[in-house]
Amino acid sequence: MVTKETGGVKRMNICVTASGEGLDSEVDPRFGRCSYFVIYNPETRHVESISNAAAFTSGGTGIKAAEIIANAEVDVLLTGTVGPNAFSIFSELGIDVQVGIKGTVQEAIRQYKAGELQSIRSPNTTPGSGMKKGNGMGRGMKGGGMGRGIDRGK
Predict the structure, then answer these.
(1) Residue 96 has pLDDT above 60, yes or no
(2) Distance between CA atoms of residues 16 and 113, nearest Å
(3) CA distance to 54, 128, 132, per residue, from 137 (Å)
(4) What is the pTM of this model?
(5) Is 139 part of a structural domain of the chain?
(6) How far apart are CA 125 and CA 85, in angstroms?
(7) Rounded alpha-carbon distances, angstroms, from residue 86 to 23, 28, 125
(8) Contact yes or no for 64/86 (Cβ under 8 A)
(9) Which 3 state secondary structure label does DSSP give 38?
């Protein structure tokens, strides 16, 4: 486990990408598009849930989300996928990125402590892949809109 010295006190912060707040929330494997970052300190057992303000941005989501993680002084990130822009920030800051999370935040932390997750040394997805249907384009109607059409309404 990675630990950092802060004023003579060792600390380590583990961040899990989640769909809600707290240890009982389900994990969300999409780093940049998750709803919350749940930060857990195993030494103090302190839990903090940070809303991911970057989740609904139209561009630069990974970078903005990585800045949130950096500001929270995270040492380990437990998630499913990380794109190249966010990964380069984590590499530069020495944040260990581990993938393969399942279940709740608490279960992901247990998986990490048991060595069941895998550290990655390069991004494991491409930019924009965390978006859902339509990749953020249009209204998600899959072509089912009525359109304006000629002679419509006759």
Answers:
(1) yes
(2) 13
(3) 17, 11, 10
(4) 0.77
(5) no
(6) 10
(7) 24, 16, 11
(8) no
(9) strand
- What is the tally of structural domains in the chain? 1
Whether residue 43 is contained in a domain is answered as yes
In this structure, is residue 103 part of a structural domain?
Answer: yes
Q: Check which CATH number belongs to the domain holding 51 and give it.
A: 3.30.420.130
Residue 100, pLDDT > 50, answer yes
The reply to whether 114 falls in a domain is yes
36-40, 71-75, 144-148: range with lowest mean pLDDT: 144-148
Q: What is the pLDDT of residues 122-132, one digit of tens each?
A: 997 765 554 44
Helix (H, G, I), strand (E, B) or coil at 108: helix
Quote the domain boundaries for residue 93: 13-124
Contacts of 7 (CB under 8 A, 6+ apart): none
